[in-house]
Predict the 3D structure of the following.
Amino acid sequence: MRIRRQETFAALLFLAPFLITLGIFFVFATVRAVYFSFTNYDLFNAPEWVGLRNYQNLFLDELFVTALRNSLIYAAVVTLVQTVGALIMAAILNQRIVGMTFFRTAFYMPSVTSSVVITLIFLWLYQRRGALNYLASQFSTYLPQVLAFLGIVVVAQAVQVLWERSRNMPARAFDPALLVVSLLVAFGVTWALTATGVLMPRSVPDVDFVWLQTRQEVPAGAPVWLRAPVPLIAIMLQNIFTTIPTFMLMFLAALQDVPKSYYEAAALDGASPVQQFLYITIPSVRPVTFLVVTLGLIGTLQMFDQVAIFGNAVPLRSVITLAYFVYNRMFPGAQLPEVGFAAAAAMFLAALTLVIVMIQRLFLRAEGNR
Amino acid sequence: MSAPVSAVPIRMRLSPREAERWLARRRWSRAGLVYLLMLVFSLAFLGPLLFATISSLKPDPLAYPPTLTPPQLSPRNWAAAASLGRQGAGAPFWGGFAPGSRVSFELTYFVPAGIEPETPTVVVPRRRPGAGLGAVQRIDYAADYSEVTAVEEVGREPGTLTVDGEVREGQVVTYRAEVTYVDPDGPRLQRLPLDATAASRDYVFLRGSLPPTRIERRGLVASYDNITPGALGYVFNNYRRVMDEARSVTTGRSLFLSWTANSFFVAIAKVLSTLLFASMAGYALARLRFPGRGLVFVLILFAQMIPTQVIFISNYLVLRDGIFGLSRLWGQATLLNSLWGVILSGLVGAGAVFIMKQFFESIPREVEEAAMIDGATQWQRYSRVVLPMARPALGALTIITFQGAWNDFFWPLVVLTTPEDIKTLPIGLLSFRNAYGGAGDWGLILAGAVLSALPIIVLFIVFQRYFMEGVSYGIGKD
């Protein structure tokens, strides 16, 4: 009995710093936020109970509805694109190679650096005379070369595959050995055509796309809940860019545990690479997919930093998210803080995150048990 | 994609040696393509960072078209800048302009045939070093202490110039301008700006001892922000501006240095408190039995799920009141705008406790039993026996916590607002962006961003192994 009590006492001592931090800054904070969300507290006057009015007013606030729309569409697009993109990249790169450490370092770099650094760099790339529009201009100028290159690759590959098959060699449509040759041939021919002046770069005006100071939404004709403002798309691209490599490495780690013999057996049975991807790769990385989607959803639904850093470079309505809405109501500059209202919006954000993650959990789990 | 020719029947028609060679060729090509793709992806993902780093050396990173080889990367310009720095202040590295020095600077023009070359007008302009915060400071102007003592022609040879495919005849004429620091009691200046105006629009500026900072008035004026930069001052001008230009209004200390110090202070304090408290709590949860253990688990899960936006409202008020008045004990009425506020509210995270608990559970209990028989106390068992074994987990925890604290944006943004010196790097960068972004002065913003990312990149490259372990702990938790 004495030992038991000693153990309890020791445990309490060991846990004390953690429990105090947790108690004040999480438990108490959450309880107080719930309480505030039912009051009209404004930091200066004593809070008065207003019942559910804050929650009702949320949906009457146009900015809140915009923030909700932006958050949902942002989370949906970014999570979907980065998960699918990371999985496809991992499947293509799934090969044990020497020097992986170097590539891993390179892939992790964007997610190691802070969101502020990455966002500032992207903000600079997105300027009207920035590097992104320059790249687009270059692409448009050299479009003939790009098209010629791709066309020659396809033709060269087709010719080779047909030729090898006529010799009864087991040539696949995308056989790497033949693809290397096709790429080299296409590169050489395109270069020669350009050097001899047969293929001329087009003279087109510079691309002058406005990424930031615009109220444009795409696709233009779609219903409000399916449209995304252009500045928000800029943030989407940035976020996909920074997270894809990390998720890709997670998928890659999982894929390298899948026995090679599965793929060999499937190939012997005549399964195409696409079929192998669908029926071997995707099922075998399901736990990682689950993790990646969960992390992605939580991260994107609570996106804040990018909105704050883009700041006055973009119209607020085009990029505002729920997380930023809460901050904006808590610290509205010259006006009186609407703490109660901000708390209600925060509770809504928490509930939304929870519900979406739960739905996703049900969905992916159910599929897993099929 | 076309259905593949069924592999089995065809392969049977190949001799084993043929088949083996075919497959070997395929393997090698595939490896080659994978390497190529890896390289392309690496470049794509490092691209923006590398490109921003290169562009941060340029006076104007928005100059169009962007280039990967700015003049700041050319060794010839480094040599010229060093020599000019030596002339200006005997400082080949960081340059300057000191009393008694005389700087000679060459400018080369193309003069079309039929025009008798005239010397350009060379002046030392009164020019502010930059926009934003830098524009408010009092500085000494080189124009007040120096004189252009001579502009003379030093070379002339026939030459041609090609404009839009059309070849023009004419002469290439080089002038030497000499700037002298005339006031013997003047201060040592950091910069010596220079403007050279050609006699007419027919002249085409070809080159100078250094490439001009910008060409103004449709080619008429070659404008230099500093002709005595020194090699490092030439290449890292924006970085020097980051350090020098933004200064605290009250103390005059460099803001960027204060922010860096603050960031290190917060990150190191958080790492130390997390290592100690998370391992203690993790040990108790993994090893000790006590009532309420289940509740603590529930709280840990809960704390990891609750969004920051929910808890920051109350936490802001708690810090404003100095954690229920506790901070008055050490003489702080409020913990807002205090680094201690940021540290105290993040002493130990639930995630860190979870990682340590997982780790301690993986250590067999037998390890402790010997110590228990020897009559060691609970604390001794923890600190002498288990903790030394936890080095890999502590390493991963150090890295994760440091990175999290270093990059943290939202919470410092809420807590640290005034004065400017109290900020950490991420929110400091935000005020750079607000001060300079509007003026389009991106050189300074990019240089600040690159500098602030440097510690974390170095840490990542050195301790990569621990980063990966941190990721695997993250995966393990689900």
